[in-house]
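During the reporting period the student researcher (J.K.) took over the structure-prediction task from the postdoctoral fellow and processed the backlog of single-chain submissions. One of the processed entries is reproduced below for the supervisory committee.
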Amino acid sequence: MTKYVYAFGNGSAEGDGERKDLLGGKGAGLAEMARLGLPVPAGFTITTEACTAYFQSGGQYPPSLKTEVEKALAEVEAIMDKKFGDAENPLLVSCRSGARRSMPGMMETVLNVGLTTATIHRKRCFRPWPGFG
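J.K. obtained the following structure tokens:
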């Protein structure tokens, strides 16, 4: 079975800087920084193969993708000691696009996914991740 989600953080990563074809430039860079022990917030990369599979199947996500993302998100929650969607201790994430090859001008980023009216007034919402501050 093809693996579509690669996790990183807490000093380890499932990928590395040599895997740009699979993880995209940003994903490979984050994996390498995590492997080097730099204080990278925990996260995960959905592979370029997931994108290819989506288009090859006429717009259907690979069957295992949802389960893999849920597992990776649970790992991020455990590392960050936060819960996605939780009003008391919310995990906020950022989503960035990345390609196998650099695409100048392509800066699609969605910040603070998980920020809601229930979480916005919580001071703990903006507590630095482990290793910072």
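The committee noted the following: The beta strands are 5-9, 12-13, 43-46, 93-96, 109-113.
J.K. will present the remaining backlog at the next meeting.
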